[in-house]
Specification:
Helix content is 49%, strand content 12%. With 659 residues, the protein is of the alpha/beta class.
């Protein structure tokens, strides 16, 4: 019998690919009579189970794939290969501790080869066993060459960055370049290490070297230009509108709500009076092609990132907390000086701080260096920031105090919802502006959804599908109703990165993918209703109550009624009371979901009224006109009627809060 094929295409999670055993040694079923029963060839049965496993993995049906492997394991067939395949499935489903266990069991039957050791090390990195992971990678190096060696070294480089061992990180990159002199990841890594050290001369030198291999790379050009800007320079000349620098962890134009939010700022504020200073990761930085001349400075985010929680007391937790301590106590001062220098270079009179756990502290450090006017933009509560950035619990109080201090020094503040504005007024004594994401009136569609078509109901999902508990329940309810509501055949159209949780290929779901805002509004013409979900999970209670989903803006621009699915205390429920552009379902029960959906689509008058309310909500709350007026107030200007009757800017005099 032959061994399992360990080559082939890379696997999504950790690069390990486990194929079915080769055909040799596997006969087809032998048709023979023995006591009236057909004799089954065990080889053919095993081959069939491996084929089932491969088919399920290809379709990302991991539960079914694991079931096939469990049966192979139960029958004591090829335990080493089965355990490796189980590790692959565990990795694909982000069950890293289980993946480690499967690798360890596989090693009981046969030693792991170097490629397996690299995959195991990646899982150990996630579970926090950094020392063991590095030891495995170091041992595996001797058995690898070419691209496999490069993958091993990149994995070790990532761990050294986590532990801030820059010398070891650079050593890994040098070894990669010895194998592949033009390896782009290594060249970019050298630039990033120099950025983490704030070594501007090295940044310029290394970025120039990388640009020789990647000519025209906008990320590298911006990084190099920013390093050059750290030299002292004069101030730009101020004009009618204040010059504004936005300090953010998000690059304008980036996919996601933050990038779209800043795109609105760029569309509405003169580019020659606007600059961005972004504290971000190299992998996320992508300079938008349609923003020539927009000054974008860059500082490397000093905090390690991961999507997986680290057990308290583990190597990863301790190194992570040390990195946060260092970022708050030291790096924030360095980045604040860089940001202020960049603001001075471009003559910025106002710094708008788009808040996250690190920029709170940076704002405080900027104020310690300069009396420059600072405004805060807090669009999400700390709760979701802590989860997104996986901030160690020991630092929550420190960052909460940083937010309070930043609010005390801010001239103005903006939030995304009425709920957050009220809470921040009570908590900090600062009356915020409510500044949800806006779109141009030119993309608005009116009168298109006032009558529901006969016999069908197309429901749109868009953006990030984060509230998986609600979405899974919604899909399950539609499936239980055989995709029929009020006599209408229901289908979903998804303008999302992934399919909804709980869906399968048999369901009437069209997946378009992630698309731009303007195209998104026109594509919504194909829908009769839009679905918006927030978490029912209590750990997201503050986020549900205080945040406001930016995806409602294009829905309102399209004049599309919405079906909101989330807790009763959410900001969206309050918004629907003010602008009844749809209905809310505050339950995960299938019967309640179907009842609320039927209520909306079975009443032509109610549906038409929701469509009209959507158009009104867009005009009153979510258009560029409203966004512009409030943003001007945030930066110390206000919109006044111009001679042509359109809003024109003026600089406010006196107190920042006058007018």
């Amino acid at each position: 019998m032959t061994s399992v094929n360990l080559g082939g295409a890379p696997e999504v999670s950790d690069g390990l690919s486990i194929g079915a055993p080769a055909a040799a040694g596997f006969g087809s079923a032998v048709a023979g009579e023995a006591g009236g029963e057909t004799a089954v060839d065990p080889d053919a049965e095993e081959s069939s189970l491996w084929s089932e496993y491969e088919a399920h993995v290809a379709a990302r049906r991991y539960d079914e794939a694991k079931a096939a492997l469990d049966e192979l394991y139960r029958r004591n067939w090829r335990r080493h290969q089965v355990c490796l395949a189980l590790a692959r499935v565990a990795g694909a489903t982000r069950q890293h501790e289980q993946a480690v266990g499967y690798f360890e069991e596989a090693a009981k039957y046969e030693p792991l080869n170097a490629a397996h050791s690299v995959s195991l090390a990646k899982h150990l990195n996630v579970t926090g066993e950094l020392g063991r992971a590095l030891a495995l990678l170091e041992e595996a190096k001797s058995g690898l060459t070419g691209k496999a060696l490069v993958r091993c070294l990149l994995a070790a480089y990532a761990i050294h960055c986590e532990t801030r061992d820059w010398a070891a990180a650079e050593k890994c990159l040098a070894e990669i370049l010895a194998v592949e002199p033009d390896n782009q990841a290594a060249l970019v890594g050298l630039v990033e290490v120099a950025g983490r050290r704030h070594d501007y001369a090295a940044i310029i030198d290394r970025a120039t070297r990388a640009l020789a291999v990647m000519p025209g790379d906008a990320r590298l050009e911006a990084i190099r230009d920013n390093a050059r800007l750290q030299e002292p320079s004069g101030f730009a000349v101020a004009g009618e509108l204040p010059r504004v620098m936005i300090l953010s962890a998000v690059v304008p134009g980036e996919d996601g709500s933050g990038g779209r939010y800043f795109q609105s700022v760029i569309d509405l504020y003169p580019r020659d009076r606007l600059a961005f200073f972004c504290v971000t990761r190299m992998g996320r930085f992508k300079l938008p092609a349609d923003m020539p001349g927009l000054p974008i400075g860059l500082a490397f985010d000093p905090v390690p990132r991961t999507m997986y929680a680290a057990p308290e007391g583990s190597d990863r937790y301790l190194s992570w907390k040390a990195a946060w301590d260092w970022a708050l106590d030291h790096e924030s001062k360095v980045i604040a000086a860089e940001a202020l220098n960049f603001a001075r270079r471009h003559g910025s009179e106002v710094i708008v701080v788009a808040a996250n756990p690190l920029t709170f502290r940076i704002a405080r450090e900027i104020r310690a260096l300069s009396p420059i006017r600072i405004s805060m933009m807090v669009l999400d509560p700390l709760e979701i920031r802590f989860k997104t950035y996986q901030v160690p619990a020991a630092l929550h109080r420190v960052i909460e105090e940083d937010l309070a201090a930043a609010m005390r020094i801010a001239h103005r503040c903006a939030t995304s919802s009425d709920n957050m504005a009220e809470e921040y007024l009570e908590r900090y004594g600062q009356e915020p502006l409510v500044l949800p994401h806006g779109l141009s009136r030119e993309v608005q569609r009116t009168g298109r959804h006032r009558r529901l078509g006969d016999g069908r109901l197309t429901i749109a999902l868009l953006g990030a599908l984060y509230a998986t508990d609600a979405i899974s329940a919604f899909v399950a309810a539609l499936a239980a109703a055989d995709w029929t509501i009020g006599g209408r055949r229901v289908s979903l159209i998804c303008m999302t990165r992934e399919l909804p949780p709980g869906s399968d290929p048999s369901m009437p779901i069209e997946h378009i993918g992630w698309i731009g805002q303007d195209e998104l509004v026109s594509t919504l013409d194909r829908a009769d209703l839009a679905y918006v979900a927030y978490w029912f999970d209590g750990q997201y209670s503050d986020t549900v109550r205080l945040s406001f989903p930016s995806k409602i803006t294009p829905m309102a621009a399209a004049g599309l009624p919405i079906f909101f699915h989330g807790p009763s205390h959410s900001s969206v429920v309050r918004f629907l009371r003010k602008h009844p552009m749809g209905v809310a379902c505050t339950s995960l029960e299938a019967s309640d979901i179907l009842e609320r959906l039927t209520d909306l689509v079975s009443s032509p008058g109610r549906y038409a009224a929701a469509a009209v309310a959507a158009e009104t909500a867009f005009a009153m709350e979510l258009s560029h006109d409203v966004f512009r007026e409030r943003f001007l107030k945030l930066v110390g200007a206000a919109a006044v009627p111009s001679a042509a009757g359109t809003p024109g800017p003026r600089v406010l005099s006196g107190s920042p809060d006058s007018g």
